[in-house]
Amino acid sequence: MRVLHIITGLGVGGAEQQLRLLLRHLPVECEVVTLTNPGPVADGLAADGVRVTHLGMAGNRDPAALPRLARIVRRGRYDLVHTHLYRACLYGRIAARLAGVRAVVATEHSLGDTQMEGRPLTAGVRALYLLGERLGRSTVAVSPTVASRLARWGVPEPRIAVVPNGIDLTRFAFDPAARHRTRSELGLPEDAFVVGGIGRLAPGKRFDVLVRAFAELPADCRLLLVGGGPQEPSLRRCARQAGVADRVLFAGERPYLPDGSPGPDLPALASAMDVFASPSPEEAFGLAVVEALAAGLPVRYTSCPALQDLPPRSAPDAVRLPCDAGAYARALAGVRAAGPGPRTTPEAARHYCITRSAARLMDVYAAALAHPVPKPRSPEKVGPS
Q1: What single DSSP character describes residue 223?
Q2: Helices marked H in the chain
Q3: Rounded CA gap, 316 and 140, in Å?
Q4: Nearest 5°: phi and psi at 300?
Q5: In this prediction, what percent of the chain has a pLDDT beyond 90?
Q6: Is residue 379 scored above 70 in pLDDT?
Q7: Spatial contact of 103 and 369, defined as CB atoms under 8 Å apart
Q8: CB-side exposure of 17: number of CA atoms within 13 Å?
Q9: What distance in Å separates the CA atoms of residue 32 and residue 50, rounded to the nearest whole number?
Q10: Using one digit for the tens of pLDDT, what is the confidence trace for 205-238?
Q11: pTM of this prediction exceeds 0.85
């Protein structure tokens, strides 16, 4: 089976890194087209032996990109096209149909109640999404919560399949040597109590809540923020105003898997942390929370459908909090006072093993190939024969 994955960009982001991990476990021949930004994840995919093509799309409205994309699909003689993220789903579904590929699957990575990939969910966004969705065979939701949102939007339930995001449990297992090495590289004291946050530095992630919470925490506490984005300058200002700038470390964007960039990767950074905090009030899955659990960290979070869809006992040291600086300060102080516990992986993280997700996706592929989208009917002749 030959599968073409089409994605909006390949910078360091959750959906992008999830795609790279998934391709390492899918037992099919895969290639990738990125509409824009062939960033570090593109380099990582190439290192894995995956062919990556940069379409060079100019902005959200680039009509010339569509025929270029259709030609790539047609030349590749792919059995199935799999699209990821809003813009790629729209252009990719149309291009696949133009190229004659009728087995088309899309993954919805980032649909919230009020926004998608940071854009407000307006009536226009919803209408365009549903128009493109009809051109595919199946829409994959990364959690039952997202599946319910899709159904409320108007996507027919038989067209929705749930395939959760997956993690590499072995890579995220706690590593004492990586903890020592990473703290040394970052200049973090060995005896510091390190609170970690991972995600795009954008307003919706609400990392400002953690920064303000630190004003109420003792001097031995450090905040390690992993990610990049437009809110970094304002978060730095917030840290200065709160008087904690010397205790907040911005680690920048870090890869899930080695991609040749210097510095520690996400698993090593997770080993360096003592607790993980996620104040984001709206998530589609909550991948960073699950990765933190795989690293054996206690977790304090506001939204994580991946956990909310499971029994509470599957992650006993994951506690849900309101998106409030005071609540996070009290909760983090409580974890610090309790002292370190065993860094073991709970059942919730094991539930999201990447091999299980890859197997579920192969079932979706099989169904799409068995029942592809019908060809458009030719208009019937009208008038006397």
Answers
A1: E
A2: 14-23, 40-47, 65-76, 86-98, 123-133, 144-153, 169-172, 176-186, 207-213, 232-242, 266-272, 287-294, 305-308, 325-338, 347-351, 354-370
A3: 29
A4: -125, 125
A5: 78
A6: no
A7: yes
A8: 22
A9: 7
A10: 999 999 999 999 999 999 999 999 999 999 999 9
A11: yes
Average pLDDT on 132-142 reads: 92
Residue 81 three-state SS? strand
DSSP 263-301: S--HHHHHHH-SEEEE--S--SS-HHHHHHHHTT--EEE
pLDDT of residue 124: 83
| Residue 236: Cβ within 10 Å count | 15
Q: Which residues touch 303 (CB under 8 Å, ≥6 apart)?
A: 278, 280, 281, 282, 283, 286
Could you tell me what percent of the chain has a pLDDT over 70? 96
Mean pLDDT of the chain: 92
Cβ neighbours of residue 270 closer than 8 Å, sequence gap 6 or more: 172, 196, 198, 276, 291, 292, 294, 295, 297
User: What value, to the nearest 5°, has the Cα angle with vertex 315 and ends 313 and 320?
Assistant: 100
DSSP per residue over 232-274, as a string? HHHHHHHHHHHT-GGGEEEEE---SS--S-SS--HHHHHHH-S
pLDDT value at residue 376: 54
Gyration radius from the chain CA atoms: 22
Q: What are phi and psi of 379, to 5 degrees?
A: -65, 135
H or E, element range at 318:
strand 318-320
Strand 104-108 vs strand 29-34: parallel, antiparallel, or unpaired?
Answer: unpaired
